[in-house]
Amino acid sequence: MKITVIIPTYCRSKDLARCLEALRQQTRLADEVLVVVRDTDAETWRFLEGVNRDFLLLNTVKVMVPGVVAAMNVGLDAASGDIIAFTDDDAEPHIDWLERIEIWFQSDRQLGGIGGRDWQYQDGRIKEPGEREVVGQLQWWGRVIGDHHLGIGEPQQVYVLKGVNMAYRKSAIAGLRFDERMRGTGAQAHFEVAFTLALKRRGWALIYDPNVSVDHYPAQRFDEDQRGQFNEIAWINATHNETLALLEHFTAVQRIIFLFWTVLIGSRSSFGLIQYLRFLPNEGNLAGQKWLATLKGHWQGWQTWRQSKTGSRRLYSRGICF
Q: How far apart are alpha carbons 91 and 213 in whole angstroms?
């Protein structure tokens, strides 16, 4: 099978150099590596001019629109592989990453996507020690369980893969796009949720295998979504994106249950009333800011979903079908 690797990047040439070197050392080399670069990213364009392309079939793709979704879609348009693998510029795939991915797709024709663990490092140490046997799941009331960076145990069927370490069968995602309704000017949180749930609705299997691994060195972001810091706009955008993805996926009954659960209870990253009261003693005013931002994000996600449905019905009534 022919494998294409897509790497969106922006102003992180040192990280990108490490990533490309890891791809050059793979036991199964990629047939095509596509680095997607913003038109305004002079640093990366200069770096790529001097890259040694021996044993690495490297091509560059220009994107004119900010945000990871636009970069992913431009990469998809250019990819020619039977398998399309994605990783981040601040990741370092393990030496057998592509070999394991190919074996999975060759062994299971019903497999639409495969992902694995991203071992996160900060200052030379594991960023968040811990282990989880359940990762990448969507509970029926709307709670999304990520924890891809902590997964252990046997391979398991999942609902959600993580952008830093995921690969898809090209025939399975034919016609699919990363959702351009996702908000944000850079990272665009939860874009993977929308994409993988769309693939699940097509009936394809998604697998998480902890042995399909990359090392991940979370690097500087150049947008409002800064790691470990509260930003109201980023919080609203993340809640909007997750809400939109789940409303798109759920049945009518599940949507009602989800909205009740998320407003009344919520999670650490999407405060409902109970979570607000839980964190209020320690976080004070910050807990209130997170709660209000969550409510705004839910409302905006609901509006985006309703507007999209209304627009689709109007096009359908005019005889324009999808």
A: 10
Burial 239-271 (b: 16+ CB within 10 A, else e): bbbbbbbbbbbbeeeebeebbebbbebbbebbb
Residues facing 119 on adjacent strands: 215
- Where are the alpha helices (H) located in the chain, listed in sequence order? 13-24, 42-49, 68-78, 97-107, 191-201, 232-249, 252-264, 273-283, 285-317
Question: Are residues 211 and 154 in contact, defined by beta-carbon separation less than 8 angstroms?
Answer: no
Q: What letter represents residue 251's amino acid?
A: T
- Amino acid letter, residue 121: Y
Tokens of 87: 């990783």
Could you tell me if residue 304 is left (phi over 0), alpha (psi between -120 and 50 degrees) or otherwise beta?
Answer: alpha
Pick from 233, 303, 251, 297: nearest CA to 270: 297
Tokens of 220: 């500087």
d(CA 293, CA 269): 11
**Is the dihedral angle over the CA atoms 128, 133, 138, 142 positive or is it negative?**
negative
Which of these, 72, 88, 115, 92, lies nearest to 220 by C-alpha position?
88
- How big is the CA angle at 303 (ends 300 and 307), to the nearest 5 degrees? 145
Mutual orientation of helices 252-264 and 285-317 as an angle, nearest 10°? 160
Rg over CA atoms, the chain: 20
Q: Are 87 and 93 in contact (CB under 8 A)?
A: yes
- What is the full per-residue pLDDT of the chain (322 aa) written as tens digits? 999 999 999 999 999 999 999 999 999 999 999 999 999 999 999 999 988 877 789 999 999 999 999 999 999 999 999 999 999 999 999 999 999 999 999 999 999 999 999 999 988 899 888 999 999 999 999 999 999 999 999 999 999 999 999 999 999 999 999 999 999 888 889 999 999 999 999 999 999 999 999 999 986 755 555 566 789 999 999 999 999 999 999 999 999 999 999 999 999 989 999 999 999 999 999 999 999 999 999 999 999 999 987 655 443 334 444 3
